[in-house]
Design a protein that fits this description.
It contains 12 helices and 12 strands. The chain is α+β, with helices and mostly antiparallel strands and 436 residues long. Helices cover 52% and strands 19% of the residues. It is rod-shaped and about 160 Å long.
Length: 436
């Protein structure tokens, strides 16, 4: 009985009704000059009104409490719906419903943001979203990879990559198309930059798209050299082969000591030597299509080192191998990658031929982006900068008996394998094989 009375006294409509009735009765009593009735009724009206105001403030506090909780991302707030007057029960049910709806919207929004973030990290273009003060609102993994950074929250941090980058990104405007380059431990990176604008919640943001044009430039350069090589080898073979064949035919009809025979023999031998020479360069344009398989990097590197030592027994270099983890696996054409490693190790050992403390370091690991990276470095004489610019150019060589196609073929193999081969300038001569 007491509980029902308590529930009744907490009813907001009861006090509204009582306030209206007592006010009307008090007004009538004062009008009729019935002061004995007017005074108690007025006091009752005042009390009913104060209870009404108190319950109204209670509702307001509950609503404000809910809003504060939502503002702090707390959707666990619940108001009781049992043991209350009908009006309070309906009010609490409404508040709980609001919390449930907003919580569901928040959850769906978070899922959508995660979904868009996953899509953003799958594209091959670096994306950076920043405001007018240089603060980074969004970036994807490709942007971090291109810039060589793990954390990026403000354009000022880009000064660690290149002193010009912070000003370049902060000063770019929607519609700009820019290009820039910088050099770090991974080599020289060329970037094309496109800028667009967007306004979100009355805040102007810029979307900066970054693309690595190194790969595109390398591909165009290699394609040009391949076309040139095909044309040259085709023309030379078409011209030299008939001469050599005709010389051999005439040699069978000449006497042994005839001077003409000696001349024809010289022509034949020179032609055959030229044909062998051209055949070597045809390798550059006739690399077989890679057939990838899975193989362990550690065992592969060990075999490559053994072959290199056998090939250059007079070069006493110290090989240091660091493979992490020990069971690192690579998915590529083992035979073609063996050709790349053979070329790199041969170059390293040739550079260390006259060096007593020669050292070749081979490191392999799996990066955060799951790309396998193999580094081959030696402490031999550094490659001069004016030479380093041309080391991947076909037929370019500084060796007396070099062909100039070892590194160009190696880069072509890596390109066909979906990876890259780069040279890192520094104290040690370092080449990096990266398998995406």
């Amino acid at each position: 009985m007491k509980r029902r009375l308590h529930i009744l006294l907490q009813s907001y409509p009861l006090w509204v009704t009582l306030t209206l009735l007592s006010t009307a009765a008090a007004t009538a009593a004062w009008t009729l000059s019935t002061y004995g009735m007017a005074i108690p009724l007025s006091l009752l009206a005042l009390y009913a009104f104060s209870r009404q105001v108190r319950l109204h403030r209670q509702y307001a506090r509950q609503a404000l409490f809910l809003l504060d909780a939502i503002a702090n991302d707390d959707y666990s707030v619940r108001f009781g719906e049992t043991g209350l007057p009908e009006s309070d029960r309906l009010y609490h049910r409404a508040l709980n419903r609001v919390t449930q709806i907003l919580g569901q919207v928040k959850k769906e929004t978070a899922q959508q943001e995660k979904y868009y973030e996953l899509i953003l990290n799958c594209v091959s273009t670096g994306i950076v979203v920043l405001d007018s003060r240089g603060y980074i609102y969004q970036k994807n993994n490709e942007a971090l990879r291109l810039l060589g950074m793990e954390i990026l929250t403000h354009t000022g941090q880009l000064a660690r990559v290149d002193a010009r980058l912070p000003q370049l990104l902060s000063g770019c405007r929607p519609g700009d198309k820019l290009q820039t380059s910088f050099t770090n431990e991974r080599g020289t990176t060329h970037l094309s930059i496109r800028v667009s604008g967007i306004t979100i919640r009355d805040k102007s943001l810029r979307i900066v798209a970054l693309n690595d044009i190194n790969h595109e430039l390398d591909e165009k350069e290699i394609d040009s050299w391949m076309r040139l090589t095909r044309v040259l080898t085709h023309e030379i073979m078409n011209s030299v082969t008939p001469i050599t064949s005709l010389s051999d035919t005439l040699l069978t009809r000449m006497e042994e000591k005839d001077e003409l025979r000696q001349g024809l023999q010289t022509i034949s031998e020179t032609g055959k030597g030229l044909i062998k020479f051209v055949e070597r360069y045809r390798q550059f344009t006739h690399i077989p299509t890679p057939v990838p398989t899975l193989f362990y990097v550690k065992g592969f590197i060990t075999r490559m080192v053994q072959l290199a030592r056998h090939r250059f027994p007079d070069t006493h270099a110290d090989f240091r191998i660091d493979i992490r983890p020990d069971d690192l696996i690579l998915h590529a054409d083992e035979h073609l990658i063996a050709q790349v490693m053979t070329n790199l190790l041969a170059n390293a050992l040739q550079a260390l031929a006259t060096q007593a403390d020669g050292r070749v370091s081979i490191r392999a690991c799996c990066g955060e982006d799951e790309a396998v990276v193999i580094e081959v470095a030696d402490n031999g004489p550094a490659i001069p900068p004016d030479v380093a610019r041309h080391i991947f150019v076909p037929f370019f060589t500084t060796k007396e008996n070099g062909s100039g196609i070892g590194l160009s073929i190696s880069r072509q193999i890596m390109r066909l394998s979906g990876g890259s081969l780069t040279y890192l300038p520094g104290k040690e001569t370092t080449f990096v094989l990266r398998f995406e």
